[in-house]
Design a protein that fits this description.
two-stranded antiparallel sheet, alpha+beta, elongated, 4-stranded antiparallel sheet
Length: 185
């Protein structure tokens, strides 16, 4: 029973961390990364398709994203999809590839992006704490139902707390790294 509660907590917490990582990847830095275009949808022969499934997206330079479609006839659709996504990019189409030059971020924009990253991190921390609360309630219910002893309950509560601390530390480390990337000129 205790193992089930701990495993459930661990799995859900890892999903929360993965979700946090995905959200934080979408926050722009001053450097070009292909992941900023992951959510761009392209009208690919009448079907909305994620950009990475229609083209090769690379970053040959620190401030340049190069998009090479697998089918040259989709260049206009890709360009339209990038503009519709409202990412603040101005794609240039040369007939073979699309180039996106990433403009340098202003100090004010950097601070705003850091705020956004901190907000996403806090949501992830709250999610982990909510999971801890739910697991603690499960352990207390098991104790009340005499399924586990008082010592097992205390041990379970301590282990859940240690796991919570570890996951929150992971979130803080990911946030610190992303913050450094955003503030880097």
């Amino acid at each position: 029973m205790l193992a089930d509660v701990k495993n459930g907590f661990n799995e859900k917490a890892k999903k929360s961390i993965d979700s946090f990582v995905e959200q934080v990847k979408k926050i722009r830095t001053g450097r070009a990364t292909p992941s900023v275009l992951d959510n761009v949808m392209v009208d690919y022969y009448g079907t909305p398709t994620p950009l990475p499934q229609t083209a090769n997206v690379t970053c040959p330079e620190a401030r340049l994203i190069l998009i090479q479609p697998w089918d040259a006839s989709t260049l206009k659709a890709i360009e339209k999809g990038i503009q519709k996504a409202e990412l603040g990019f101005n794609p240039s189409n040369d007939g073979h590839v699309i180039r996106i030059v990433i403009p340098p971020l202003t100090e004010e924009t950097r601070k705003e992006l850091v705020k956004q990253a901190k907000s996403v991190a806090e949501q992830a921390r709250v999610s982990i704490r909510n999971l801890r609360r739910d697991c603690n309630e499960q352990l207390k219910k098991l104790k009340k139902d005499n399924t586990v002893t008082e010592d097992e309950e205390k041990q379970g509560l301590d282990e859940i707390q240690k796991m919570t601390d570890k996951f929150i530390k992971d979130i803080d480390e990911i946030l610190a790294k992303r913050e450094k990337d955003i503030l880097e000129i």
